[in-house]
Design goal:
Blueprint lengths: L2 E6 L3 H13 L3 E7 L3 H11 L4 E2 L2 H7 L4 E4 L6 H10 L3 E5 L6 H14 L3 E4 L6 H11 L6 E9 L3 H4 L7 H5 L7 H5 L1 H4 L3 H17 L3 E9 L8 E8 L4 E7 L9 E8 L2 E6 L4 E6 L2 E4 L5 H4 L4 H10 L9 H20 L3 E2 L5
Parallel strand pairs: 1-2, 1-4, 2-3, 4-5, 5-6, 7-10
Antiparallel strand pairs: 7-11, 8-9, 8-15, 9-10, 11-12, 12-13, 13-14
Helix pairs in contact: 1-13, 4-5, 5-14, 6-11, 11-14
């Protein structure tokens, strides 16, 4: 018998990534979808044929027995819709960012711990073969003690933050639904711009690959005429003594390639990773190892988080993108916004 999974939210990313992945997974049973919009529910029912559909999570939990759930809704709704699912004993995959408020992230992590269920965050790059190799190389001490880590992420997102998702029909390849114009442009629901939508990806991947723990950050952000941030620059100190920089920009033109690059330096070597181009080289005392270029289809495994959720629910795989990591990223982004607003370095997780 497969894992009984519900999807909460019938918007763009649910219909683009999660629902197709679940329907194609022989070990998953799509028992229900939830969305307050009857038109979106009708589209999803016709395309994906779930076992049932509901307008809210309370109705779902009163009716259906679940093993797992996916929450793919605007950022400000992540906590209120995830909490009851965890309390009901379901393993839950939450789209990134885990939450906007660090206190809400800590609450979800505690609920998962208390209920002995897994909380996952939707970070597909944690399932990329090259990033796994980087994680293993660093953990084995291949490049020595980490001293500096740099990351640049540049993406196609400006029009999302402008509330104009229709202009990205070709670039983002919407297959069934477009994002709601307010989802990424309204700070009340999004919590911010590039940091909440994209830096969360690159920061999480950096922490996941390296095991570094950020303790303080000095940051600057730029909105460039938007209501939310389009560009973010962070200098980070880590608990180990290492330092790092993270740059994130959402204004790449839709006809240009996005970029995601890491340079990680240790006392005995360094690693160069270009995620978007599928290129990885490891430089250590034995020389340089250049790994085969990853095929395009393996560089961003968007179906992998849903597959991991199903495997976790069936008890046959570990959680590869856990809520504690997601919570640390929420803390880092919160510190970034605080630092940018004051012009001073601040503690991650603190209020100084």
């Amino acid at each position: 018998m497969g894992a009984r999974v519900a999807v909460v939210g019938c918007g763009w990313w649910a219909t683009e990534a999660h629902l197709p992945a679940l329907v194609a997974n022989p070990d998953a049973e799509l028992v229900a979808v939830v969305d307050p919009d009857p038109q979106r529910r009708a589209l999803v029912e016709e395309r994906f044929e779930p076992g049932a559909s509901y307008a809210d999570v309370d109705e779902l939990l009163a009716t259906v027995e679940l093993d797992a759930a996916i929450v793919a809704v605007p950022h400000h709704l992540h906590h209120p819709l995830t909490a009851p699912l965890l309390d009901a004993g379901a393993h839950v995959l939450v789209e990134k960012p885990l939450t906007i408020d660090p206190a809400d992230a800590r609450d979800l992590v505690e609920r998962a711990r208390r209920g002995s269920v897994e909380l996952l965050v939707g970070y597909p790059w944690h399932y990329n073969e090259h990033t796994t190799l980087v994680r293993d190389a660093i953990a084995s001490g291949r490049i020595g003690e980490l001293e500096f880590a740099g990351c640049l992420f540049a993406s196609v997102a400006r029009e999302l933050y402008r509330g104009n998702p229709d202009s990205y029909d070709a670039a983002l390849g919407y297959t069934l639904l477009r994002p709601n114009p307010a989802t990424y442009s309204d700070p009340r629901s999004a919590g911010g711009g590039q940091a909440q939508t994209q830096l969360t990806h690159s920061a999480a991947l950096l922490l996941w690959m390296t095991g570094l723990e950020p303790v303080s950050v000095a940051a600057a952000t730029g909105a460039f005429g938007l209501e939310v941030d389009l560009a973010d620059a962070l200098t980070v100190r880590f608990g180990s003594g290492a330092i790092g920089t993270l740059g994130c920009f959402g204004g790449v033109r839709e006809n240009h390639e996005e970029m995601l690059e890491y340079r990680i330096f240790g006392s005995e070597g360094h690693i160069a990773l270009d995620v978007q181009q599928g290129q990885l080289s490891i430089h250590d005392g034995d020389g340089v190892e250049r790994l085969p270029t990853l095929p395009v289809e393996k560089r961003y495994p968007q179906a992998a988080p849903s597959a991991n959720l199903v495997d976790v629910a069936l008890g046959r795989a570990p959680n590869r993108s856990d809520g504690e990591l997601g919570g640390r990223v929420v803390e880092l982004i919160d510190a970034m916004y605080r630092s940018a607003s004051t012009g001073a370095a601040v503690d991650v997780g603190g209020r100084s």
